[in-house]
Design a protein that fits this description.
elongated; alpha/beta; 8-stranded mixed β-sheet; 8 strands
Amino acid sequence: MKLSIVSPIYKAENFIDKLVFEIQKAMNILDVDYEIILVDDRSKDNSWQKMKELSVKNSNVKSVRLSRNFGQHPAIMAGLSQAKGEWIIVMDCDLQDQPKEIVKLYNKAQEGFEVVQARRKNREDNFLKKLSSKVFSKVYGYFTDTKYDNEIANFGIYNKKVINSILEISDYIKFFPLFVEFVGYKTTSIVVEHAPRDSGTTSYSFSKLVSLAFNTIISFSNKPLKLFVKFGMIISFLSFCVGLYYIYQAIHYEIEVLGFTSIIVSIWFLSGVIITTIGVAGIYIGKIFDQTKNRPVYIIDEIYGS
């Protein structure tokens, strides 16, 4: 098997036929053995029924259904675990990642690269998604001391050994683009055409985007803990300086009546700092707890097709 194309499916009943058709057109140009692996993240529409029909019509289409909705990135991992190709394409199902660009990605990979990522110069997303992507890239880069490119997402071609390395990562929180960055290998990117969403709306609400960003940063970085340690040291130093000042005033009999307001504000402020610090530490402990349970991040319910 030369190529495996993996695509997580969610609420795609209206365009999944077109997705497979466009992939087949690209494969006809490349003229290589291939398989299409569609992973149903337990869609609430008729996506699974459509996927099974496609598997019956086309022996190259394998349909995988998860036992419940696990999320986009666990669904990608489920698809990768089934891929047999020497090269693996990962792409979203909404046709914003255009199948015709697979040809460019594959040809670039033949120049000796093990990872070729698709760079979306002109993103056809709504304002909120563009803004959240930029904010996430800046915040993630700050907390991890790395450069995260918001023009690059899941779409790309990856050598089998790269995918094997990614599948070995046991992190409970899954985020495919960051795993690709973590494993390394000989990587490049090419500019591709990004299309408007074929139909429907994105399944990522603002709250889901915030949750994904928060979980990813906590999973990949301990910098928030370090920042609170530094903040606590600064507060302690300032408190020490204020204490010295009050001692000086006491020695020179300059203190008459201490202000009630300053005491209450100080108590509330330091209490807030302490509670926040404990909260951040608690979040990390919670993530450690989730990791030590070693639960699977996805469960495959059915596999249909070859």
